[in-house]
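User: Could you go from structure to sequence for me? I need the amino acid at each position, not a summary. C-alpha cells:
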C-alpha cells in the first residue's frame, strides 16, 4: 500500500499542472525511483484512461458551433491540416523514421499537439518511448512558440485577428495557442480558440484514417470502440447542449483522465530504450514546423 501514496500524490500534481509532457515525466520518475511491479495498476490499465479522456473531450465539442464560427476558414484549415500531415509522413519516410513515430509527430503538428498524439497512440499501438519522444519535442516547440510568436507578430505588425488565426494554425497544443494569443490581445485569444476548435475536429477523420492505414495489413482489424464513443459524445453535446457548469466539469474530467493516462504511459516506459533516441525525430519536427510557420502566415495575411 505504501507505493500508492506517492502514486496518488504524483498523479494529483500531474492533473494540477495539466501539462502532457510533465505528466509523462512524472510517470517515468515514479517508475525509476519506486520501481513498481509489472502488474502494478498503472502498468495494467494501458491506454484506458487516455481513451476515457478523449471520449470526455468529445462532450465539449459541438459541430454546429465549430462550423458557424469557423466556416470561412474551414476549407483552408482542412487543406492546411491535410497538407501538414502528409508532409510530415513524407519527411518521416525520407529521414527513415519509424512509421509510428512519424504518425505521432505529423498528427501533433497538423492538428492539436498532445491531444492528437494521445488519441493516435492506442490506434497505431505506439510504444511508450515513442509517445515520450513526440511529446517532449512538441513540448519544447510549444514553449518556444509562446515566447517568440508574440514578438514576431508585433514585429510584423499583424492585426489581432491575423495573429489569432496564425497562432491557431502554426502552434501545436491548444493551451499554447491560447497562451501565445492571450499575450498579444484578448481578441487574438478569441480568434485563436475558435479556429483551433476547427482544427481539433480533424481528430475524428485522422483516427479513422490512421486505423485503416496502420491495421489494413493485419488479418483481423479490431476497430477501436472508443472512437464510436468519441463521435457519440460530440453528437450528444450537439443535440442536447450541456450547460456551462456541466461543460466545465466535463473539460476538467477530460483533462484529468488525459493526464492520468499520460502518467500511466510514463510508468510503462522502458528506461533502456531511451538509448535508441536519435536526432531524426527532432529534425522532422523542426523541418515541418519551419514549413508550417511561413505557410500559415501567408495563408492568414494574404488570403
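Assistant: Here is the amino acid at each position, in order:
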Amino acid at each position: 500500500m505504501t507505493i500508492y501514496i506517492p502514486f496518488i500524490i504524483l498523479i494529483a500534481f500531474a492533473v494540477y499542472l495539466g501539462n502532457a509532457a510533465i505528466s509523462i515525466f512524472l510517470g517515468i520518475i515514479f517508475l525509476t525511483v519506486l520501481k513498481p511491479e509489472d502488474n502494478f495498476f498503472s502498468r495494467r490499465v494501458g491506454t484506458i484512461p487516455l481513451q476515457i479522456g478523449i471520449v470526455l473531450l468529445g462532450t465539449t465539442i459541438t459541430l454546429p458551433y465549430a462550423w458557424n464560427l469557423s466556416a470561412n476558414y474551414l476549407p483552408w484549415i482542412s487543406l492546411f491540416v491535410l497538407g501538414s500531415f502528409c508532409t510530415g509522413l513524407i519527411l518521416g519516410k525520407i529521414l527513415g523514421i519509424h512509421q509510428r513515430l512519424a504518425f505521432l509527430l505529423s498528427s501533433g503538428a497538423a492538428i492539436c499537439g498532445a491531444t492528437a498524439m494521445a488519441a493516435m497512440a492506442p490506434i497505431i499501438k505506439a510504444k511508450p518511448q515513442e509517445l515520450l519522444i513526440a511529446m517532449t519535442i512538441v513540448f519544447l516547440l510549444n514553449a518556444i512558440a509562446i515566447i517568440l510568436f508574440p514578438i514576431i507578430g508585433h514585429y510584423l505588425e499583424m492585426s489581432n485577428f491575423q495573429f489569432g488565426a496564425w497562432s491557431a494554425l502554426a502552434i501545436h497544443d491548444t493551451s499554447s495557442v491560447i497562451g501565445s494569443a492571450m499575450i498579444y490581445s484578448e481578441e487574438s485569444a478569441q480568434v485563436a480558440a475558435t479556429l483551433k476548435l476547427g482544427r481539433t475536429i480533424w481528430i475524428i477523420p485522422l483516427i479513422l484514417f490512421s486505423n485503416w492505414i496502420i491495421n489494413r495489413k493485419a488479418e483481423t482489424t479490431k476497430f477501436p470502440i472508443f472512437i464510436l464513443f468519441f463521435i457519440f459524445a460530440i453528437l450528444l453535446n450537439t443535440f442536447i447542449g450541456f450547460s456551462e457548469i456541466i461543460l466545465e466539469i466535463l473539460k476538467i474530467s477530460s483533462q484529468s483522465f488525459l493526464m492520468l493516462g499520460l502518467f500511466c504511459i510514463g510508468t510503462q516506459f522502458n528506461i533502456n530504450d531511451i538509448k535508441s533516441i536519435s536526432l531524426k525525430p527532432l529534425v522532422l519536427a523542426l523541418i515541418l514546423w519551419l514549413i508550417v510557420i511561413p505557410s500559415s502566415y501567408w495563408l492568414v495575411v494574404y488570403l
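One structural detail worth keeping in mind: The CA atoms of residues 65 and 238 lie 8 Å apart.
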